[in-house]
Amino acid sequence: xxxxxxxxxxxxxxxxxxxxxxxxxxxxxxxxxxxxxxxxxxxxxxxxxxxxxxxxxxxxxxxxxxxxxxxxxxxxxxxxxxxxxxxxxxxxxxxxxxxxxxxxxxxxxxxxxxxxxxxxxxxxxxxxxxxxxxxxxxxxxxxxxxxxxxxxxxxxxxxxxxxxxxxxxxxxxxxxxxxxxxxxxxxxxxxxxxxxxxxxxxxxxxxxxxxxxxxxxxxxxxxxxxxxxxxxxxxxxxxxxxxxxxxxxxxxxxxxxxxxxxxxxxxxxxxxxxxxxxxxxxxxxxxxxxxxxxxxxxxxxxxxxxxxxxxxxxxxxxxxxxxxxxxxxxxxxxxxxxxxxxxxxxxxxxxxxxxxxxxxxxxxxxxxxxxxxxxxxxxxxxxxxxxxxxxxxxxxxxxxxxxxxxxxxxxxxxxxxxxxxxxxxxxxxxxxxxxxxxxxxxxxxxxxxxxxxxxxxxx
Length: 459
Description:
Layout: H1 5-12, H2 31-63, H3 68-71, H4 73-96, H5 98-117, H6 122-151, H7 156-185, H8 190-207, H9 214-227, H10 237-247, H11 249-277, H12 283-311, H13 314-332, H14 337-365, H15 371-400, H16 402-423, H17 437-440, H18 443-446
């Protein structure tokens, strides 16, 4: 019997399975490891939550930066690196495992915090965010991929909802804690000492009780391999990127929605603090406003993940994308604090509907053997919104004011909603009308024409 390309790829990777270990799929069967990775995700979110509140005021009050575009340059630096590292992490994790990549990611968070603590100029802060981009690209990619590995296809929406809920609750906690620390102890070093403590905790859990989850992905892949023996070859990066970005129109719709989603989030990170501070709010109040957005987003992802398992992915994703834009429009259209809270809540609710289910849709459509790589391509698209959003919207803000940038952001969300309506087909396995395109067109994944089975003539 000859080995398929998939067999060779699977045996080429270091073995992490043990004949004495049960690799049953499911949330209940793996609740302890799932819980550990959920805590890890919360700590990943708290790491970035610190700077969402503490960093924009640092630009003006410590370094005298008044340009909106220059101030939000740290978001662009962060997003560019994170987008690339998502792709790298996804690809490497299919071969090396999830845990190793997680540990490397935690290591990159140390220079991030130290550079900001000792920064003598704003470019130190921009450099620090390159390290933070690596940290977030590696750690968050791996924590969500690990949960998808453990759970398998049943209940995938709920699993991703729990993961993303933990991450954005952590982001809200980190932002609120940073706001309180800034109010009591100043812009430095207190918030970033907190970040160092969070990083240390995450690294200890990852190194200690958290287990490698690649064997669970391989157990699921073995089932797919039995059903699709000619369609499981490990695709190259180019083939996978082309498939996700063009051949599968549903994945194209998902990728663009993820990118515009992060353009919206870049408004919250880089523009909202400046917008609210210029209207007389304190740093602590800004922390609460940003925290409301993050908490509604975070806590809402558990029920919205469950909802997507029962009604499908398309309508939660589409409705959520529309609501994000509506929330931005609400904030841009008023100067009333109570209405700003309403806008932040609507934005958070939209994120809760769209964000986890975009990831779940990719998990639905990818083969387990190359799921990490597919998620990496999606996250490359998605987090490029962090790189492009601050540059485009920052330029608009420099020319016409922050309010104009908010309205452009709202319009982009509206356009993304129309693309989803036109291109996205249902991906939930029990409700989709057709199998993922790679099953009928495996050459889109392998890059090679499909050969006819021996003994069969080509018509």
